[in-house]
Specification:
The strands form four sheets. Strands 1, 2, 13, 14 and 15 form a five-stranded antiparallel β-sheet that branches. This protein is globular. It is mainly β and 204 residues long. Helix content is 6%, strand content 39%.
Amino acid sequence: MTDKTPAALSPYQQALRERLLAVPVLPAPAPWRPVFAPCAPVGGLLGIGFGSHPGTGHDLVMVVSHNGIGLFDAVTGERVAREPDADPYPEDGPEGAAPELTYPGPGPLAGTRVAVAGLFGGGLNSTSGDGWSVDVVAPAWPNERVLLSHGSGLPHPGPHGERWWHVFHSHYSELRATGFSPSGQTLAVATSSDLTLWTRRPPK
């Protein structure tokens, strides 16, 4: 019979795991600032996507949940649109069909379709385009941790809090999506119960 027992971690892997387990959650460094204090509750969150406000140029975050679709300004934190009757599942697809990965935009995004990442697939940008990166690690699976870094990737050389930061620990809800907006000015973490945002734009 084939031995299916998981191989033991190498000394390097064990040291990396212990390092990731030991670091506390820290605030994201400047120029990042939190948009909410600390998050926006969204029960039954399924996925999120990004758009751009045609008037202000602010990043917008569209949230798809069991309760409909909402739209948040990623600079001010204001909820600028909500469609509680929007259905996250396809109307005319065959039985058991997967939900869509793009949805009609509400409010200022009306007339466009927004790509969504979350429970049903898709993905967000893992880099900002100017040196920032985000990684998701699970040294104590299934609880996942979000690491923000600048100028370095895994396994994050340099001291924690100087070149890389453990900014989010998903120990209470399932992680749905993590990533940057196309502009690189917003970092989002979505779980099954809430939305956390950071922005590099000053408050208005």
